[in-house]
Amino acid sequence: MNAPVDHLVRNGLDTTNQFAAKLKHDPSAIHGARDGHVALQTSVGQANQHAGAQRVNLAHASSGATSERAVQTSKDLEKEVQDLLDESAEIERAVAEAAETLHVGEIRNDQVRDQILREIASSMKALAAVNGIQPPESRAAAARQILLQLQTKIGQLTGQAATFTEETLGKLTGLGQRLGGSESTSASSATTSVPQAFNNNGAHVSHGGGGGGDSGGGGGGGYAGKPRLPVAVPPQPGSGVGINLPGGKTVMAPNETAAKAVRAALSQLGVPYVWGGTARGQGLDCSGLTMTSYQDAGLQLPRTAKQQTVGAEVPSIDQLLPGDLVVWSGHVAMVIGDGQMVEAGDPVQISKIRTTNAGQQFIGFYRPTG
Question: Closest Cα partner for 328 from 358, 367, 295?
Answer without folding.
Answer: 358
